[in-house]
Every structure is written in structure tokens, then in C-alpha cells.
Queue: 3 jobs
Job 1
Amino acid sequence: MRASRVPPPAFDVVGDLNVRIEDVVDREDLFEMCRSAQALFGLGVRVYSSEGALLANEGRELSMCGLVNETAAGRAACGATVNRAKSVDPLSSAEVSDGYLARGRALGADHVVHACFTGLAYRIVPLVYETRHVGRIVLGPYAPADMKEAPALLVRTLPTLDRQEANARLLGLPRFEPSALAQIAQHLKTALEVIIFSSHKAYLTSKMHLYSVRESYRTLEEKNERLEEALARLKELDRLKSNFLGTVSHELRTPLTSIIGYSEMLADGIAGPLATEQAEFVDTIHRKGEQLLALIVGLLDLSKLESGTMSLRYAPMQIGPTLKEVVSTLAPGALKKGVEVELALDRTFCELAGDAERLRQVFVNLVDNAVKFTPKGGKVTVTATVRTIEPGALSEVRGTSDVDDIGIVLLAAPHLDQKAVEVTITDTGIGIPPADRAKVFDAFYQVDSSATREHGGTGLGLSIVRRIVEAHHGVVSVQANEPQGTIFVVTLPSAHARRVMPSRVPPAVRP
């Protein structure tokens, strides 16, 4: 049962305008901007988020602030002033009547000035992005250009403070004209808003990319799940098909054997002499019965291979006697068709561990196909040679890279050669088109599948050949043979080479 997944949270790329400075701008970039402004203008700079969190701070303590902070009351009053300054909303339309706030709109800016009880001031500049308030810049404290002495509010707040010392320190601070300070504030505001704009665009681009990747991954997961379900259904259908073929073929074989047997008895005259025409009819029944029996045997073999019920009896053997028997069996039929069959054996000793009967079935099928598709006057050559195989060579022929095979072969005793028998069946027939060479080993596949094809067959033989060869740890392939003809190559590892390979008997067969 497939587990249900929680769908990913919705993400509106276009409407994602709830910008937070801390999310889109690097803190180090903010500190660098504040340091540059402080070094250039000699003015303290702080950047706050829209929620009032301090994001960057650069500035030195003024001498007047140091004098005030020498007393507990001064420190408390200074802290209260700073808290009010950083919580001011420059975009609010509410006016403060106690004299602490003075709007700077006359200077063409939407920032405000927050006066300190010491006579110093803070300039508060809003940061706006896409009509949204995203934060503020606080400049100061600084000494206004028109300040002449400490205000009366300072004396009322700190009665014990030395007023003469306070005036001396205030008058010794750098002064800022409102217009110049407004330009500095506007410059910092514009610079930071440009940084926010660029960073937010990069932030949105990154989110869009992540969203795209997430959506692609989710879509891929869904497709993989559908493919897995389809594969499971196909496997089940394939299993049912194999069971059906096996059952039907087995049930057909019994009555067909009786038909062939009775046709043979009729042909031998056991039921009485037959007229010429009757004998021809019986011979036709017998031949067609044999063809049908061969088809049923092929279906049974394929069913056993696919279900894993076919057993192989491995034993020490040489390939030569098996090939001689195959050639001697098929030579009369080939001679009758006018096709020459030639056998060339390598005299080098190479012991195999195989099922002689099943290997005989492999080469009967390959040689019989070669004869069938070779026209009169053609030639079929069966060649067996012994060659040394490289570590992992058979895996490479299969189209895989088996590290385990390579490692185990490399660990084998160096003085023992890893040999293999290579059997080549070459004909001068019609050949196989390049586009069909990779498909001829598929079950029921035929190069010419038209209703008017010249050569019969079910397309099962080569599929069975490949499965039996792979059960012997070997490989079978089709090679190009231009301009005509076909070359089938079967490579079987020697008994020793097979022993040093890992056990990889396909699930289609059992030893």
C-alpha cells in the first residue's frame, strides 16, 4: 500500500512581498555600510528591522553622552531616550506635542528628528520597499547646528550635573546643518533600499529556483510511483502469462504426442497398408505434429526459464563433442537444402562446467537458424576457439561493469589462466539489420513478422538460447557481417574461470 504524502506548502512567488531585511540582506553588508558612513561623516548609524530588532550598529560614544552616563539617573534617562528613538514609526501621521518629535518634511524627506534631553538629536529615516515599511535607519546622536547651550530639560532631568561642563562638551561636538544631514540620511536610505531591492530579487530568484526544483522532484516522485505500480502490474501479468503458457503447453503436449505416435504407426502400416495418397496425408500429419510439438516444447522451456523451475545439471565437459553431434544432426537437412555446414575446432584443451544437453539445445537452435536463413549454395561455419579472458570481460560484454567479478578474478592465482571457449556461427544468408540485432533475443520477436514471411518460427529460440547461455555465466551476441550474413558468438568461461567468479546463476534457472 502506498503511503500518502503531505503536499508541500503553497508558495506564492509573485505575492511574496513580506520582506524582512534580516532575511534578504547579509548582516556583514549592513555593518560594512554603517562603518563606511560613520568613517565618512563622523555620525553614528544604526539599522533596525520593522519589529525594532537591531541589525547593525556603528558609532562612538560622544563626550556629552559619556558625561551623562556617569550617573545612574543619566544612564536611565539616556536609555529611555534611545528606546523611544528606535521605536518611532517615521511613517505614522500622529504628531507628538511634547517637543520631542519634529517632522522633516520641509526638507523633502519623510524622516523625523527625535530630540534628546541633552540637546542632541536623532534623525530617524524609514526604509520602504514596495510601499511596505521594512525597517528604519537611526542617525546620531548628533549636535544640531543651532544649539548654543545645554537645554533646561537637561538641568531638570539631572539637577546635579555640572552645567558649565555640559555646555563645554556640547559646544565642542561637530555640528550638522539640517539640509546636510537630510542629504546624508537620504543617501543612506537610497543606498540601503537599493541593497534591499537587489537582495530581495536574488532572494525571490533563489526561492523560485528551489520551488521549481521541489516541484520537479515531487513530479518525478509521482511518476516513479506510477512507473513502479505499472511495473508491478506488468510483472504480475508476465507471471500469469508464463503460468498460462506452461499449463496450456503441458496440456497440449499429451494429446499431440498421441497424434504423432498414431501417425507413425499408420505410416509403418500397423493398421494395414496405405494407398499413396493416404501415406502422403499421414506424412503431412506427422510433420505438422512434429512442428507443433517443437513449438510446445519451446513454450514449456520458456515458461520454466521465466518461473525458475528449469534445472541444469552441470558436469565437466568439452565443447567439441557437443558441436560435432550438432553438426552431424543438422548436416543431412542442410545438404538437402544445398547449404554446406563446416566445423572447425580448436585443439586446445579447455574444460567447461555445463549442462551438455542444454548447450546442445543452444547450438542446435543457432546452427538450424543459420541453415534456415541461408539460401541454396550458401555456407554455415561453426568455429570453436579457446582464448584468455580479461578480468570483467564477460561483464563488459553484458553491458555492465561488475566490480565484484573484476576483484575476484584479480585475486585468483596468477599462474592459472582464465580461459573461455568462444563458439562462432557464421552464415552467408540474408543477415539481420543493425536496428534489429539488439531485439532478436527478445521472446516472440521476429525480424520479419509479416503474414507473408518466407521462414516460419515462433521467435522463442534465441530468447531461450540467451537464458541458457547466461545460466552458464556466458554471453551470446550478434556481430556485424557486411554486406550479408550473420555472426552469432557464444562465449562460455572455463570451469576454473567460472569457479573464481561470484555465484551469479540467474533466477530463471536452478543448478
Job 2
Amino acid sequence: MKNLEKYLSLLDGKVDGLLLTSRYSRHYGAEFDIAEGIAIVTKRGCRYFTDSRYIESAENNIRGFEVLGVDRLNGYYKLLNEAIADFGVTKLGYEENYLTVAELMGFEKHLNAKLTPYNAHISGFRGVKEDWELERMRKAQEITDKAFAEVVTRIKPGMTELELQAELIYCMYKNGGTGLAFDPIVVSGPNTSLPHGVAGERVIQAGDFITMDFGASYMGYCSDMTRTVAVGYATEEMEKVYHTVLKAQQAAIAATKAGVPGKDIDAVARNIITEAGYGDCFGHGYGHSLGLEIHESPSPSASNTQPMPVGAVCSAEPGIYLPGKFGVRIEDVTILTEDGCEDITKSPKNLLIL
């Protein structure tokens, strides 16, 4: 089924139109990425509005929508109201998760249709990926793996975290990335105890752990991986923590399959880390779904009591963080199947000492 057809299936009377304002939903529905625009979906017609910077690209690549350009005389409100009138729309479902209060107030004031929050319905389809989406995600992860293999050959004492981050970004683009899935996390030494630390001027030294959490984007679809490596040597405590995290990740991946509630997958990794005496040092969830966005639903986390579906793409990223000392996180991306999962991250997970 085409993604646009999925959106059309939502028009069951509660709403008779969808207002797509986020880049992600417009990309999903049109199956092509345009940085700026708004789309309206109805059973009587679909229109995609964008400005002069993107109109030619939209006209050449978007199918299933009538593409119209906005300008100073024909703004979004005017063109949307024309579509509302032409298609007989009375109730528009909108993406409340992606609108500011000011944007919502503008739509409510100017559009000639009742607005209904509909984000859960609009974004719900993205939890299960089509085969062509999975191929893009495999490609994104392949690029990310290549970047890791290349960047580890460049790490040396004396370079800063920021210099290493720049090398990592360069390697992702060099190996075919069409964008970054998110701003990379590159931290070293005691900074690795910060799960979402920010690269700075700290100089990498022998005896450091370095944690790199990064992902390339390919044609709009994300990859995500984390590797923790040691520089020069690793202490006995560093090795113990590393291998505890690895054991937790491998056990949880083995337990990951469709039909299992997200919390049960999380529990496998969390129990191993707790039994090793580090339960208080693993504060975040075991994983999250990803796709057009780096964080999507459903997730294999302690808060998710629902069974995971076939075709979900989820990260597997347990971690242990010892404040002021060091931290370890290891992350792969998995595709859920009926009888298990496919780990599409191919980079080695043995403790690398550079």
C-alpha cells in the first residue's frame, strides 16, 4: 500500500481531511522530502504547497498530490482554504506534536474548518516499515558502519573531542550519507559518564574511554549506533563495565522479536546490569524506534507495555555510567521479525583498544 493510501484510510468520518505540517509526515505521504511546505489530504483530492525555493523539485518528484506554489499574494492560509472549499472539508486532523502554539492559533483563526488533534493516527503508520524503507535504513547503517571503521584509524592522543567529532561527520558524508540523523555525541575520559554529553575542547589521552553515538541519514531515513573504545589501555574496572554492557545488549537482542512487550525486552538488559551491581547507573531506556526521525514509536523501553510489531526498527543501547569516572554504551539497530530480529549493525563489538 502506498503511504498516501494509508493516510486516506484515516478519513473515516471523525475527520475528512489531514493537515500535514511536519517535514516527516509530508515526506512519508509524498514519499519525497521537501524542507518547507504544507500538504492537505482528502478523499476528493490532495494538494502539496511549497515556495519558489522548492517548487521545481516538488513538481518533478511528488506523485499523488497537486503541487501548488505559495507567494506573497497566495499564502498558505489562502491556498488551504481554497482546497478546503474545493474538497468540501469540514474537519481537519492535524499534527499537534509538531505545531507551536502560535502556529496552531494561526490555523484556528484563518482556516475554514474545525481542527482536531490527530498526531497519533498520522504518525502511527511509521512504526512498521515497508520493505523499501528498510532498504534505505540498511543503507544508512552501512554508511555509518563504514564511517566507524574509518574514524577509528584516525583517533590518537592529543586530538580534541571536537576534532574527532569533525572527523566522524566527514566520514559519514564521505561514505555516502545524505545528511546526519542527529548531532553526534563524541565524549572522552570522565565525559563518557554523560549519556548525552557534548563534544568540547578536552584533549584525548591514553587510558580514556571514548564514546561515539552517531548516525548517517540516507534519503531521509536514519541510522544510529554507539561504540565505546579505549585509547592505549583499559583498566580492569573499565573492562568489567564494558563486558557487562555487551552481555546485556547481546542477551536483549536475543530476546527481541515481534509480539514481545517493549518492557520485557528492556528488562532482559536491565536485569543483567542490575545483577552486576550497576542498576543505578543505567537510567535511560534500552532502546527506541527510528525511521524518518531518530526517535519514533514504539520502543523497547520499560514504559512500553504493548507487544512490538513485525517491521519495527529499534535501537539496542544499554549503558552503564559512573559519574566522574567513565561510561560505556554499545548500540546496534535491529529490525523485528516474527521469530527474532535482524541486527543490521555490522561494526565489531569487542573492546577495541586503539
Job 3
Amino acid sequence: MIKKEFPILEFDPTQEAFINPRMISEKYPKLPSHLLVCFFKDAIDQLFENEEIVHLTTLRGENDLEIFKFVNHDVALIPGKVGAPLCAGFMDECIALGSKYIMFCGGAGVLRSDLAVGHLVVVDSAIRDEGTSYHYVKPSRIIKSNASVRKLIKTYLKHAQIDFIEGRTWTTDAFYRETKKKIKMRQEEGAIMVDMEQSAMIAVAQFRKVHYGAILYGGDDLSQEKWDSRNWSNREDIRLGLTRLCLDIVLTFDALKMKEDQQ
């Protein structure tokens, strides 16, 4: 009996659902094992114009998903979608098509004013204030990201002498309900950023037993009395650079693949 006081707490660990993402595997080509989820449309457009990526296929539905592939690397690329259900759902479908080593690059609001626009944060955990993750992983307040993947990301950034910090994000479904009281509470819980996807992405990766890591860059500021956009969505140089950086990083996930092959 899984019935609880609140439906969101009724986690069912059964692997088989009534509809499963693998049902699409006969309709679309198999994807590379490495996948980059990129939230920056401007960066994707630039990569396409530069002929660094080519269009691979389109997952058709009420919300289509364009899938690209890097020309010089066996890595697929998809645009990130806003919100946990759509973003994590599309990742689940890509996993069904063969993706196993997944890197996410995006931006998020900051809950610390000293985090400058463009400052990189390696996501080590997320506060689960959304709904999707509770259908993939049993209820908990915090979900931790993959430690092995995180180690690879940090090692790469250190060797490249790129400044970053490791931290927790607050994942929420409702960006119009980020009240001052909630922001203060999440800050006290250790969150330094706020986003809409990470706890769900981590949960899907855990449920499907794939490797997932994420880098978010500092965007708008929610730590002060008044919201400050900081013009974060118009930082094309940061966004394209971070996309290329995350491509390089996901290629280092081969170390995880080699370890699995030896087992």
C-alpha cells in the first residue's frame, strides 16, 4: 500500500509504467551514448551556423524536440526545456534512445549577491521543490548529484584553471512564487542558486542508472530586496563558451565508460 496523506509522496518503485519511454526507440535513430543538454538557444544557433553541429532528428509530439549531433564528436545535443516535467521527460526519452553520459549547461538565479554573472556552479545537490522527481526517487528534501561525475567535472575545471564553486540549487516549479520568506528559508538550507529542472534531472538519471552532471552559471539576482535581472540572458559570449566547455567535459565521461567496461 503506497497511499499517503499527499499524492506527491506516493512513490512507486516499480520500473514498468503504463507508458514507457523505450516505446519510441523503434521510431527514431539510436543516439550517441554522450549527450549535452544546452539551455542556450543562441549558442545552439551559433554552433549550427558554424557547422559545428548538424541536425540529427526531431522527436515529434505536442512539444517537438530537435536533436543535433556534433560534427567532430560522437555527442548528441538537445536544447533544454523550461521546467522539470518537459526537460526531464525529454532526457528520459534520450536515455531510451541510447544516452548514458549526460552533461547539462544552463543558467540559474543566484541567492548570493557575491556570485557574479557568469560565475560557474557545479551542482552538488538540489532541494526538491518540484513534482517530477517524486515519481522517480522516493521522497526526500534533498537529492545529491552523482559524486563520480562531479569529480570528473571538477578535475577538468581545475586543470583548465577555470574558477568555479560547488553548491546546492533550489529547484522549484513556480518562478512566480519565489517569495522572500521562501528565499530566506532556502538560503538557510544552503541553496546558492534557484532553477526549475535540476532535482528532476538528477532523479531521472538515478532511476535510469545513467551518469549525469550539471554546471549552472550565475544569472539574475534574487538575494537582494529587489530583483535584479543583471541582463543575464544577453551574455552570448558566456553562453557559447560554457556550451563548448561542457562538450569537452562530457567527453571526459569516457573514464566512467571504461570503468564500466572493465567490470
